[in-house]
């Protein structure tokens, strides 16, 4: 059986017709074929045919092991889930037979490594349809789905992972992702930023489309990075930002990703509609906006400084990566060449001694098969007429620009477009992609980089940007709490948080500026960026939810908590617990109950309302503990797993809500599923059935609770995170 049969994904190859039947999209497009055959991209017709054959096939499955949803603290997560995959899942994927052929097992991709692990990226040449059909894949599929929901595995097209890798993000970098939605590359940028324990930089993810910037929020909030900001600007006019209230010097970005909107003809293996919709005008029409975004990125990029004598870089390297999922030179080399030409001849840049150039990436990503960028190409108008040169007075050049044409001989020498990277589907069975890395540089600075003084009057581009990005008048919904706020004080006292707990980076997301429902935390630099640029930034999202006011909490005579103060009903969100734990004395904190008993944890995790009597039977120590803590508040069960035999080796701590007679584990459904699967080897179907049953019982119980005025918190209140909109009301 050929690759075609296995990897072809029927799900993506058609569209419902109006009569409701399934209509195959024909994988042919004569305009596309003629256009690409005329470009100097493929060696000969034979190579084009191979390329086309691959374009018609579905993509193999690729998946990457990430550092999980506690991106700031959980560095062992990647190793742990990877080991689980290699020991428990992978052996079942060897020698799988389908239609009398053995499907080769997944293989690792050598050019994607983390500091700790060499084999974090895997490729499996099999379609989703077969995976769903065949029982042998069931466990593998469940594993992928579950770990993906939990943020431990990222499902992303192989070639789409290259641009963030070439940016070489460090934990100290200020990173801007100019066109970020849906966010798969931003996710990688955050992984790199958090590759060491203390990230002092940040990632700002931007998208011009309001809805898509919210989609970005949905994708990225699950990884809980306090160093992330999501904003909503047109990248062509991305505002200049400042730090530390120093309004004389603008803040430049050390790493910028320009993954611009494009015709997407490198994605036709996945998006079959490209076959139907591809036109010459598609690429031509995007050229100018792509160039504008790239030029704006280059403007905002930190300038690398080199010593005069030895030409050595002073300080860290800043870079910008430009990428598209298109193979069209008009969207790629033409944009890159135009940016080089325009930037390096702009009097403003010349006066400041700043230039840009392409970086040589040939030694990066060893093992990745690639082709050099091209120096010339053919330009066609929407009528498919080949045009030798630009003529602004000609009707044939309507809606075209001079920058679409190839560079001159001298420019070819200077631009080094061969440094661009082209990836074709047939090179290593992937989608198509174009990537190149730029640097902005200045020679002759002996000392540490100086900040650039603004001189707006000489800068034409800034005038344009200022005209578009008038100060935002929207109310600020991201308000930092004063560090002596009484609620913060009460929370710190209740949880016995040490004096080093950072109280000054806690914020609320409502116009009143008071902690109504949730309190979030950010990194110090994110706070700085938000506060200094309140008037300039259209901020959509920042902050990791840390404390939540438990709404089910009411004070009644029956539950013995008649005089509850606010401190009792603020619980710690599970995802923020590892961060909070850094400021707790794990030995002495009286809210922590330690257990090594798997059965104890199992019982707690199995039931929404786990009765104390049952737990006392398993561990009599728990009775003493309960007598010493406040009923009606949040506490913790610490599962000490040293020397444990099961898959998860790390110790686990869970927030629990202590009711009068029973407790609730305050973890979400997905984590509950993962832990029940891994710790107790339960089948996912059984867990889901159990969750449903418990949820029904919880509802009945809640109703009873109302009538009996016996207050308990239900894990339903943990469930879906309250969205900002509802909170802002
Ligand atoms: C190729 S996609 C980006 C994919 C993304 N980098 C990822 O890996 O998930 C291009 C994105 O650019 C956004 N976009 C289009 N025009 C834009 C503009 N002028 N400024 C900023 N974003 C823009 C689109 O909404 C779209 O989400």
From TrEMBL:
Region: Disordered; residue ranges are 1-22, 710-729
In what ranges is there compositional bias, type Polar residues? 9-20
Q: Where, in this chain's numbering, is S-adenosyl-L-methionine bound?
A: 179-185, 207, 234, 259
Q: Where is the active site?
A: 325
Key word Nucleus present: yes
Q: Which GO terms describe its biological process?
A: tRNA methylation
Q: Name one GO cellular component term.
A: nucleus
Its annotated compartments are: Nucleus
Question: What GO terms are given for molecular function?
Answer: tRNA (cytidine-5-)-methyltransferase activity; tRNA binding
Short name of any one Pfam family annotated for the protein: Pre-PUA_NSUN2
Q: Main localisation, per the record?
A: nucleus
What does the sequence similarity comment in the record state about its family? Belongs to the class I-like SAM-binding methyltransferase superfamily. RsmB/NOP family.
Protein name as catalogued: S-adenosyl-L-methionine-dependent methyltransferase
Organism name = Hanseniaspora valbyensis NRRL Y-1626
Give the organism's phylogenetic lineage: Eukaryota, Fungi, Dikarya, Ascomycota, Saccharomycotina
């Amino acid at each position: 059986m050929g690759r075609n049969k296995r990897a072809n994904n029927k799900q993506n190859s058609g569209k419902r017709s109006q009569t409701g039947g399934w209509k195959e999209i024909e994988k042919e497009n004569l305009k596309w074929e003629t256009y690409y055959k005329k470009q100097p991209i493929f060696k000969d017709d034979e190579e084009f045919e191979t390329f086309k054959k691959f374009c018609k096939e579905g993509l193999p499955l690729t998946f990457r092991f990430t550092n999980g949803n506690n991106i700031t603290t959980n560095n062992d997560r990647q190793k742990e889930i990877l080991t689980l995959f290699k020991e428990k899942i992978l052996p079942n994927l060897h020698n799988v037979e389908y239609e009398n052929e053995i499907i080769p097992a997944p293989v690792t991709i050598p050019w994607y490594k983390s500091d700790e692990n060499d084999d974090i990226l895997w490729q499996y040449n099999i379609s989703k349809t077969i995976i769903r059909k065949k029982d042998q894949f069931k466990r593998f599929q469940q594993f992928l789905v579950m770990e993906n929901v939990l943020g431990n595995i990222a499902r992303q097209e192989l070639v789409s992972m290259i641009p963030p890798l070439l940016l070489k993000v460090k934990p100290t970098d200020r990173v801007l992702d100019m066109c970020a939605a849906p966010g798969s590359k931003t996710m990688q940028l955050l992984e790199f930023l958090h590759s060491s324990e203390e990230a002092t930089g940040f990632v700002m993810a931007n998208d011009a489309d309001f809805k898509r910037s919210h989609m970005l929020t949905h994708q990225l909030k699950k990884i809980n990075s306090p160093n992330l900001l999501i904003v909503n600007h047109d990248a062509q006019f991305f505002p200049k930002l400042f730090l530390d209230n120093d309004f004389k010097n603008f803040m430049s970005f050390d790493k910028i990703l320009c993954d611009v909107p494009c015709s997407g003809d490198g994605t036709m293996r996945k998006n079959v509609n490209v076959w139907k919709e591809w036109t010459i005008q598609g690429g031509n029409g995007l050229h100018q906006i792509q160039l504008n975004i790239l030029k704006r990125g280059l403007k905002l990029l930190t300038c690398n400084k080199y010593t005069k004598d030895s030409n050595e870089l002073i300080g860290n390297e800043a870079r910008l990566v430009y990428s598209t999922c298109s193979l069209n030179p008009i969207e790629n080399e033409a944009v890159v060449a135009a940016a080089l030409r325009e930037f390096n001849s702009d009097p403003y840049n010349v006066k400041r001694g700043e230039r840009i150039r392409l970086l040589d990436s040939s030694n990066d990503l060893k093992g990745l098969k690639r082709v050099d960028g091209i120096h010339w190409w053919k330009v066609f108008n929407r009528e498919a007429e080949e045009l030798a040169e630009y003529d602004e007075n000609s009707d044939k050049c309507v809606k075209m620009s001079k920058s679409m044409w190839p560079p001159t001989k001298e420019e070819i020498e200077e631009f080094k477009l061969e440094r661009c990277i082209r990836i074709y589907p047939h090179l290593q069975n992937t989608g198509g992609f174009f990537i190149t890395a730029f640097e902005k540089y200045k020679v002759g600075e002996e000392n540490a980089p100086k900040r650039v003084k603004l001189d707006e009057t000489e800068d034409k581009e800034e005038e344009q940007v200022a005209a578009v990005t008038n100060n935002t008048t929207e109310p600020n919904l991201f308000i930092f709490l004063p560090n002596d706020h009484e609620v913060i004080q009460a929370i710190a006292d209740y949880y016995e948080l040490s004096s080093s707990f950072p109280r000054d980076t806690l914020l609320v997301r409502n116009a009143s500026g008071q902690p109504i429902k949730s309190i979030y935390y950010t990194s110090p630099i994110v706070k700085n960026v938000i506060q200094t640029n309140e008037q300039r930034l259209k901020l959509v999202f920042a902050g990791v939810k840390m404390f939540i006011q438990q709404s089910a909490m009411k004070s009644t005579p029956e539950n013995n908590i008649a005089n509850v103060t606010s401190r009792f009903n603020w619980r710690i969100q599970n995802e923020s617990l590892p961060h909070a734990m850094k400021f707790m004395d794990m030995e002495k904190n009286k809210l922590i109950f330690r257990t090594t008993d798997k059965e104890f944890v199992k019982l707690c995790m199995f039931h929404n309302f786990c009765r104390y009597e049952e737990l006392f039977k398993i561990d009599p120590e728990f009775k003493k503990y309960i007598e010493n803590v406040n009923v009606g508040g949040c506490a913790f069960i610490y599962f000490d797993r040293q020397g444990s035999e099961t898959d998860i080796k790390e110790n686990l701590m869970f927030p629990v809500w202590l009711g009068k007679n029973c407790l609730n584990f305050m973890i979400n459904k997905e984590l509950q599923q993962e832990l029940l699967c891994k710790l107790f080897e339960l089948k996912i179907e059984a867990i889901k059935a159990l969750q449903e049953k418990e949820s029904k019982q919880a509802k009945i119980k809640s109703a009873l609770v109302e009538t009996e005025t016996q207050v308990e918190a239900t894990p339903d209140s943990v469930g879906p995170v309250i969205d900002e909109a509802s909170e802002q009301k």
